[in-house]
Amino acid sequence: MSEIAEEARVVAATDEGASPTAELHVDGLRVSVEGKPILDGVDLRVPVGQVHVLMGPNGSGKSTLAYSLMGHPKYQVTGGAASFDGQDLLALSPDRRAKLGLFLSFQNPIPIPGVTTVNFLRAALRAQGKELPARDFIARLGEEMTALRMDPSFRSRYINDGFSGGEKKRAETLQLAMLEPRLAILDEPDSGLDVDALRIVADGVLRVMEKSEGRMGVLLITHYYRILENLTPDRVHIMHQGRIVDSGGPELAHLIESEGYDPYISAGSAAAAEVTSR
Amino acid sequence: MTEAATATGVVCRETLDARVAVSPAWLADRRTAAWDAFSAMPAPSSSRDEDWRRTDIAKLHLDRFVPAAAPTRELVELAQSRQAAALPGAALVVCGPDGTVTVEHAESLLAQGVIVSSLEEAAVRHPDLVQRGLSGIGIGESYFVAMWNALWQGGVFIHVPAGMQAVAPVWIGHLAAGGEQASFPATLVVVDDHASLTVVEDLVGLPDPTPRLSVAVTAFQLGEDARVDDIPVQQLPYETWHFSTRRANCGASAHYRLFGATLGARLQKAYWDVILEGRGAEADVFAVCFADAHQHIDHQSLQLHRGPDTRSNLLLKVAARDQAQSVYGGLIDVEPGAIHADGYVVNRNLLLSQGASASGVPRLEIKANDVRCGHGTTVGHVDDEERFYLMARGIPADEADRLVVRGYFSDVLDRVPLETTREWLLSLLDAEIGDGGGLEAIEAAP
If B249 and its partner were Cys, which of A66, B136, B245, B417 is the partner (CB 3.0–4.6 Å)? Predict the structure, then answer.
């Protein structure tokens, strides 16, 4: 009974897709993996229409946050709350979260042998109630693939199967473009890319942003400043030991680029505050 | 087997006598010899017989199955609609469990000189050809083959004369018996030198809560340079005991290809044998199997290399859900004369539930020099990462599993040479996978 009610709410929320005030709220989120605490009370706000960047040393919990928000069963929420557009994310299965408008670009997406990229995308669109007539779909797909400089043969290749690192990033960006989410969590979409590929992926994300006309928010996880030359962030958050230890404007990313995370690692949050105030 | 136990069942002397009475002399003798062999044989036992070790039929009581009634109109129409959907343009042979046989749309084949008829009729009109068709099936080679040899009725016979490329495929619908009844599906196919044929054999029935028995033999004789594409589809009702032997004897340079789908029956024991007799004979066997609820599906394959330069390749992909069990045993047997034989056998299993299980035991027995043979078996699961990836795109868990399974089967199905048939097989698989919780549905039934 409660499940039916919940479904109705999700549908209603999806129908209000244009809601300009939708926001990701993360409050004191605590997450464990196989009993080991990783996130130790994360607080974060990402409104649609903005690009937020999440940086931090390896192992600080960035990907854990991304997977937890999408609902990976391996990540156990032990405390706190997460919602999007007023909907409690933690009560929803991953597919319901996707229908609500969340999207996760995987750092290393898994191959699914036998499932072609085109069938995969159609199944996803259908599942989200965004199915297009076949002709429109093919036209749209062709357009997005051209923009991402993907060979047409990609359509009939099995999703992520035998894809190079760069091809996987493009395929993830293609899915972002086709699915038009309201909140895109991009987990290192730039790792392992050369300068040209990086620009293509960044431009791809930018294009989706522009097309959304302020209806899509981005939470971008990255180690590199370079992608931010293409995608100017509204806010930059620094994560360390499972918490957001600092937040600021684009200049914060600059600072990390030149000085690294040492101040946060060596001195904890007191030093971090000092770094920000400089 | 005592007289008392069989007095009411179809597997009895009286049934044999009735069959003998309508058979030509040569066949009557064969039936009688088979019955004698059968009567002298114990039922296969999982404790005594190696290839029955994982398939226990102790609960099979032959005496509970009576002779089959004529098929219902609904069932005949089901068989017809399957052919119409999957292979329009094929000649259609519908075999009732009671021995009735109808042949439709075979005019173009008959005009070519191809024989498509009931096997009973062919046994009278073309005894030499039918005997050739049966020559690969030993009278008393096993318990169920002996039973079949004695008791089969109706059946299909196809003969393609030398040099003839059959202009249309033949679709054979074998209709399952009703509950508490038995059927003995029979298909004999003789394809002479340089001739070719495509056959679909569709075993189908209507759901019924009481068990039925199906004992089938399908035999192919391929002459020199003959080509056969054989598409067996087993979608018998859940409550079925199904025992089958499918065998292709291949002459020099003949090429036999099997594209199979095993979906139905509560318990199946199927033998798939390819006998590569002549130099350069080839066989490719590609099959998918989807099992759920409490299905127990057993495939045993034999790739027997007799001639030199023979080649065989087998790939069986199984997906099992709920409490279903898959058993597979495969043997590549290379006889001393089969130099340069090339044989390969692979069995892959995908488990979709904790309770499902699969065992695969491929074996090689090589008695010739200079051969190339290989085998492999794997058991895997749909893992959380695959499911999560699909769900993260909005695809619900059951649909995600369906996509993964469909993908898993695709390298077999992609090989099915007839496009409409391939699409139809996909739709059958989708329906089987998609009815989700076959177990719940069955356990919820009254």
Answer: B136
Interface test with B, best of A93, A95, A126, A131 (most B CBs within 10 A): A95
Question: In this structure, what are the phi and psi dihedrals at residue A218, rounded to the nearest 5 degrees?
Answer: -130, 130
Other CB atoms within 10 Å distance of the CB of residue B25:
9
Q: Is the Cα torsion angle A136, A138, A141, A142 positive or negative in sign?
A: negative
- B4 pLDDT tier (thresholds 50, 70, 90): very low
CA B30/CA A255 separation, integer angstroms: 92
Which of A8-12, A141-145, A217-221 is the least confident region? A8-12
- As for the ipTM of the complex, it is 0.90
**Which domains can be identified in chain A, with CATH numbers?**
18-260 (3.40.50.300)
Helix pair A262-277, A250-259: axis angle to 10 deg:
140
C-alpha dihedral, B250 to B252 to B254 to B256, nearest 10°: 30
Distance in Å, alpha carbon of A113 to nearest chain B alpha carbon: 6
Q: Which residues of A touch B408 (CB under 8 A)?
A: 113-114
Per CB-CB distance under 8 Å, the chain A contacts of B317 are none
Residues of B in contact with A119 (CB under 8 A): 403
Judged by CB atoms closer than 8 Å, whether chains meet at A104 and B392 is answered as yes
Percent of chain A scored above 70 by pLDDT? 88
Structure token digits, residue B328:
């597979």
pLDDT at B373 over 60: yes
Are the CB atoms for B239 and B266 separated by under 8 Å? yes
Whether B395 sits inside 8 A of A93 (CB atoms) is no
Task: Determine the pLDDT at residue B340.
Answer: 97
% chain B with pLDDT above 70: 96
Distance from the Cα of A268 to chain B's closest Cα (Å) equals: 34
Give me chain A's average pLDDT, please. Answer: 89
